Amino acid sequence: MFNDIGALELVTLVVLAVLVFGPDKLPKVIQDVSRFIRKVREFSDNAKHDIRSELGPEFKDFEFEDLNPKAFIRKQLTENEDLKEIRSSFDLKKEINEVADAVNGKEPGDSVPAGVGGTPGGATPDLLKKRETPDRRERPPFDSDAT
């Protein structure tokens, strides 16, 4: 639960607790907090048990952590054999290089890796060219939406 708390944070919390509650009330506060945490855990475990019993025997191996979308997707990607086969046959870097070559007008067998160099003929794309600076006396165009 508190795996990411370092030693300095723990010492700071202890000193802060002693200052707020005082050394004579601190043991009672710690007991009350630990009792509260125990009751919350017990309530949570009972609720999980009730939900599993209501769902029936086909959901006996149901884990509540699977309700987290990230955990669910990660589990499906690692356990599903069809997805493993698709993922192993799909080379993302190769696909990106082919798309980049098609956009730049290169043949797929060129030796220059994608993202290096410019367009064919050595010219840089218009998006990468430096814009000419307007004359200092000239006002920039007014954009009513920007104000």
UniProtKB/TrEMBL annotation:
Keywords: Cell membrane, Membrane, Protein transport, Translocation, Transmembrane, Transmembrane helix, Transport. It is found in: Cell membrane; Membrane. Pfam families: TatA_B_E (PF02416). One of its GO terms (biological process) is protein transport by the Tat complex. Residues 127-147 have a biased composition (Basic and acidic residues). Its main location: membrane. The keyword Transmembrane helix applies. One of its GO terms (cellular component) is TAT protein transport complex. Residues 101-147 are annotated as: Disordered. It is a single-pass membrane protein. Gene3D superfamilies: 1.20.5.3310. It comes from the Bacteria. One of its GO terms (molecular function) is protein transmembrane transporter activity. The chain crosses the membrane at residues 6-22. NCBIfam families: PRK01371.1-1 (NF002374), PRK01371.1-4 (NF002377). Part of the twin-arginine translocation (Tat) system that transports large folded proteins containing a characteristic twin-arginine motif in their signal peptide across membranes. Together with TatC, TatB is part of a receptor directly interacting with Tat signal peptides. TatB may form an oligomeric binding site that transiently accommodates folded Tat precursor proteins before their translocation. The Tat system comprises two distinct complexes: a TatABC complex, containing multiple copies of TatA, TatB and TatC subunits, and a separate TatA complex, containing only TatA subunits. Substrates initially bind to the TatABC complex, which probably triggers association of the separate TatA complex to form the active translocon. Belongs to the TatB family. This is Sec-independent protein translocase protein TatB.
